[in-house]
């Protein structure tokens, strides 16, 4: 721990739970997340679970070091380094004319590919089957919910592919619209309880993360995915910045006919964009979580979008 702590270099970012630094570890650049003391209570079993998750669109946890007990002690998380920042930064850079030409962010096909990558990462988590003991002789299965899907947690590799990060917020959940009570699960299996960032959840939704005993399902992730994808195609922010909040649950309301305009400079036909709104954004942003698609369904729709809009994507 002391050696790794002393090696931290350039600060790459900071959040409410800690700071991220660039570190040269055995000749390899990595990202080290140094958790704040009040937020370091991650059980070791949760870290081992995270380290065992291997998917090309998930940020890989390479290892961790702790001083004292990991749950409550000092904790450093070592991740692969994504050199190109995060999705929100790229969206803003494109709006300001600073996006690197190599990323070809003006092309609809590139953004569809990024949307597909993000949906595939979430579908992997939601399809995860984790078995835990319940009553004597009884077992039950849980999926994994991310709990903090947002554009700043979508990291970009040097060749402009997406990786879903901040996986230390993972929590077991139910994959569909069904719900599970957190208090019904063994206490040792519960990572930190976290809340979604404002703008990425429906206020008052009963099945979003909260205190032990409240309800959680993967459908809250699907709503956050819808907001993030809408950011990707419109350039608007989920909240703040002086704009109306892009909590565009309005798109989940059938009475709202006109979607927000695509980002200026994005080369996409009206037909393709409206198809995206009708088949992906609007369903994800349904106010009633039971009416939202699963992440698997979102992934299938994005697959179909390639073929239905193929001429536009090629151009």
From TrEMBL:
Q: Which GO terms describe its molecular function?
A: ATP binding; protein serine/threonine kinase activity
Q: Which UniProt keywords apply?
A: ATP-binding, Kinase, Nucleotide-binding, Serine/threonine-protein kinase, Transferase
Among InterPro entries, the record links this protein to: Kinase-like_dom_sf, Prot_kinase_dom, Protein_kinase_ATP_BS, Ser/Thr_kinase_AS, Ser/Thr_Kinases-Pseudokinases
The entry's ATP-binding residues are: 34
Ranges of residues in domain Protein kinase: 6-306
| Similarity comment: family membership | Belongs to the protein kinase superfamily.
Query: What is the protein's given name?
Result: Protein kinase domain-containing protein
Q: What species was this sequence derived from?
A: Macrostomum lignano
């Amino acid at each position: 721990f002391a050696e790794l702590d002393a090696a931290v270099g350039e600060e790459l970012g900071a959040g409410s739970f800690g700071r991220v630094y660039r570190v040269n570890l055995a000749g390899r650049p990595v990202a080290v997340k140094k958790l704040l003391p009040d937020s370091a209570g991650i059980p070791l079993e949760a870290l081992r679970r995270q380290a065992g998750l291997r998917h090309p669109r998930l940020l890989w946890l390479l290892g961790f070091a702790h001083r004292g007990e990991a749950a409550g002690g000092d904790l450093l998380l070592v991740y692969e380094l994504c050199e190109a920042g995060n999705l929100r930064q790229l969206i803003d850079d494109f709006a300001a004319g600073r996006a690197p030409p190599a990323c070809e962010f003006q092309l609809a096909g590139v953004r569809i590919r990024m949307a597909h990558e993000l949906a595939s990462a979430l579908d992997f988590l939601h399809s995860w089957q984790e078995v835990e003991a319940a009553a004597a002789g009884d077992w039950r299965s849980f999926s994994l919910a991310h709990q903090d899907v947002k554009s700043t947690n979508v990291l970009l590799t040097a060749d402009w592919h997406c990786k879903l990060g901040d996986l230390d917020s993972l929590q077991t959940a139910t994959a569909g619209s069904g719900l599970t009570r957190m208090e019904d699960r063994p206490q040792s299996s519960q990572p930190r309880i976290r809340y979604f960032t404002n703008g990425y959840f429906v206020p008052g939704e009963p099945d979003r993360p909260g205190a032990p005993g409240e309800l959680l399902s993967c459908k809250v992730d699907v709503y956050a995915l819808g907001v993030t994808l809408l950011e990707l195609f419109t350039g608007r922010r989920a909240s703040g910045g002086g704009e109306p909040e892009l909590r565009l649950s309005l798109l989940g309301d059938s009475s709202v006919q006109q979607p927000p305009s695509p980002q200026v400079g994005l080369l996409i036909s009206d037909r393709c964009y409206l198809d995206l709104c009708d088949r992906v954004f609007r369903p994800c942003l349904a106010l009633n979580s039971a009416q939202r698609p699963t992440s698997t369904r979102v992934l299938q729709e994005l697959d179909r979008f390639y073929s239905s809009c193929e001429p536009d994507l090629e151009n």
